[in-house]
Design a protein that fits this description.
The chain has a domain of about 55 residues. α4 links the parallel β1 and β2. α1 packs antiparallel against α2. The chain is built from 4 helices and 2 strands. It is mostly helical and about 80 residues long. The radius of gyration is 19 Å and the shape is elongated. A two-stranded parallel sheet has the order 1-2.
Length: about 80
């Protein structure tokens, strides 16, 4: 097998591994969402699982009040416009 074919095979194997990791991450996120939706865990526990699973980069920024008390979480402060004015 020539060098180009070897590199191609290596890259294909790396892509298969990355695809498997992506499916695992998606399943982890789905599991957290299902548990939260089914009231099996509270929001704080869901945030802990997200942090412990290093999933924040996929979830993105969250409102400050949700992330309060959970370390290493990127939070944003949301301001609600006054409906009357």
């Amino acid at each position: 097998m020539d060098e180009e074919a070897t590199h191609k095979e290596f890259l294909l194997a790396a892509l298969r591994a990355a695809s498997a990791r992506a499916r695992t991450l998606a399943l982890d996120i789905d599991t957290i969402g299902t548990a939260l939706k089914g009231n099996l865990i509270v929001t704080e526990t869901a945030m802990q699982w997200i942090r412990e699973g290093n999933l924040m980069w996929m979830v993105g920024a969250i409102p400050e009040e949700i992330g309060r008390g959970v370390q290493d979480v990127t939070t944003v402060t949301l301001e609600v416009a006054d409906a009357a004015g």
